[in-house]
Amino acid sequence: MIASRTTLVFLCGLAVVAAVVGASLKAVVRLAHHRWAIEQQYAELKDELGLDHFEGRSFHGWHRHVVLTAIAYAFLQRERQRRRRHDLTFPQARAVITDILTAHYFLTHRQHLHMLLKLAEIPLRT
Fold first, then answer.
1. How far apart are CA 88 and CA 82, in angstroms?
2. How far is residue 65's CA from residue 54's CA, in Å, rounded to a whole number?
């Protein structure tokens, strides 16, 4: 165990955990066990919701992708808790959130909505 004025570092097997001075070993072990849940959630975000599918080049695009994925995950988990069933899939949740955020965007950016409606009037095939 290494101690400083504000943190304690416990060397438990292969894990290194930084904790506030005064934290009990029981609290540190309890927090260390949360790692598995975090890894499971991260795997679901990547596999089911496409967190790792972003191929853009801008920070803003990446940020929007991550936020949309996180919102879809939170929505899905809340719906699963509320319904106590697992019939809503991650892709379905992401589609719902995408529709909601798209509608919100066009309601708050009317000029883009008008431009999109004008583009929709152009016949693509003759």
1. 12
2. 7
- Residue 20: phi, psi to the nearest 5? -70, 145
- Please, is 96 exposed, middle or buried when counting C-beta atoms within 10 Å of its C-beta (0-12, 13-18, 19+)? middle
In contact, 16 and 6? CB cutoff 8 Å: no
Q: Would you report the helix, strand and coil content of the chain in percent, each value rounded to 5?
A: 65, 10, 25
Query: Where do the structural domains in the chain lie, given as residue ranges?
Result: 1-33, 71-126
- Give the pTM: 0.49
Is 76 exposed, middle or buried (CB count within 10 Å of its CB: 0-12, 13-18, 19+)? Answer: buried
Mean pLDDT of all residues in 100-109: 82
